[in-house]
Design brief:
38% of the residues lie in helices and 20% in strands. The chain has 277 residues and is an alpha/beta fold. The strands form two sheets. The protein has an eight-stranded mixed β-sheet with strand order 1-2-4-3-5-6-9-10, with helices on both faces. The longest helix has 17 residues. This is Alpha/beta hydrolase.
């Protein structure tokens, strides 16, 4: 494993992360979930010998710089990932995305299908969607929170921050501990988060379901959809999304939404078999 940093001149930011394995063949780019960081892929990466895995902190997460856009929308992150591929000289790659990273990976594979050789989605398939009216309301909530600019909380001890992280996303203590090393920083009075404070605001839902399915239907890469037994995908539109992807294989594995961290062996086995083909 090595720590990496990649400058994105068009975005004007630097993203940081880790590389596992030796360069050779198609790179496997891993995109993590909301308020997580690249460390979430470390348990799985150690079980995927023979692949070159590049795991990045998405902009505004972990050690990466925030996106320059005030609104932090899905397509801001998509643009950064596509620029990263161009800067690295990748003509083709394989993508693994979890949660938010899975939403972004689906958009990338739909918007730039010639770039993605194979796609793994871990308990995620496309971004949150809403009707135009609900989308308008979500933008209003975000902008109100953005302009209010309330500071991130400060915790007196690391253990208090750890407890807050567990409660935020209903994750296991071990999972939160793994993420904390890149998430936490010392500040006057204790500890606070490194992540972009705007990520704590209500997420904007600017895609309609019809738009999301247009991206999913344009994916040409074979797709492995790894669903958690205790999945977070409970909205009524998800079965229709699975049907919209032209070449999708679904597996269901034990664990919660962060199953690749909590139960990495079967997830890694499924991913290894899929990418190995």
């Amino acid at each position: 494993m090595e720590e990496i940093e990649i400058r994105l001149p068009r975005a004007g930011i630097t993203v940081r992360g880790r590389r596992f394995g030796s360069p050779g063949g198609l790179p496997v780019l891993c995109l993590h979930g909301w308020l997580d960081n690249c460390a979430s892929f470390t348990p799985m990466a150690s079980r995927l010998d023979g692949f070159e895995l590049v795991t990045i902190d998405l902009p505004g997460h972990g050690l990466s710089d925030p996106v320059p856009s005030p609104t932090c929308q899905y397509l801001d992150y998509v643009a950064c990932v596509l620029e990263l591929a161009r800067v690295q000289g990748w003509q083709r790659l394989q993508l693994i995305g979890h949660s938010l990273g899975g939403a972004l990976s689906a958009l990338i594979a739909g918007a730039a299908p010639s770039l993605v050789e194979r796609l793994v989605l871990i308990d995620a398939i496309g971004p949150l969607s809403a009707s135009p009216e609900v989308g308008r309301e979500s933008v209003g909530r975000y902008l109100s929170a953005y302009l209010a600019d309330e500071p991130a909380p400060v915790y007196r001890t690391r253990s208090q921050a750890l407890k807050a992280r567990v409660q935020l996303a209903d994750i296991l203590l071990d999972t939160a501990s793994l993420l904390l090393e890149r998430d936490l920083r010392e500040v006057p009075g204790g500890f606070s988060w490194r992540s972009d404070n705007r990520l704590r605001h209500p997420f904007t839902m600017t895609f309609t379901e019809e738009q999301v399915r247009a991206y999913l239907g344009a994916i040409t890469a074979p797709v492995l959809f790894v669903e958690a037994e205790r999945t977070a995908l409970r909205e009524d539109y998800y079965p229709g999304r699975l049907a919209a992807v032209p070449n999708l294989t679904k597996v269901r594995l034990a664990g919660g939404h962060h199953l690749h961290v909590e139960n990495p062996d079967p997830v890694a086995e499924a991913v290894r078999g899929f990418l190995g083909n």
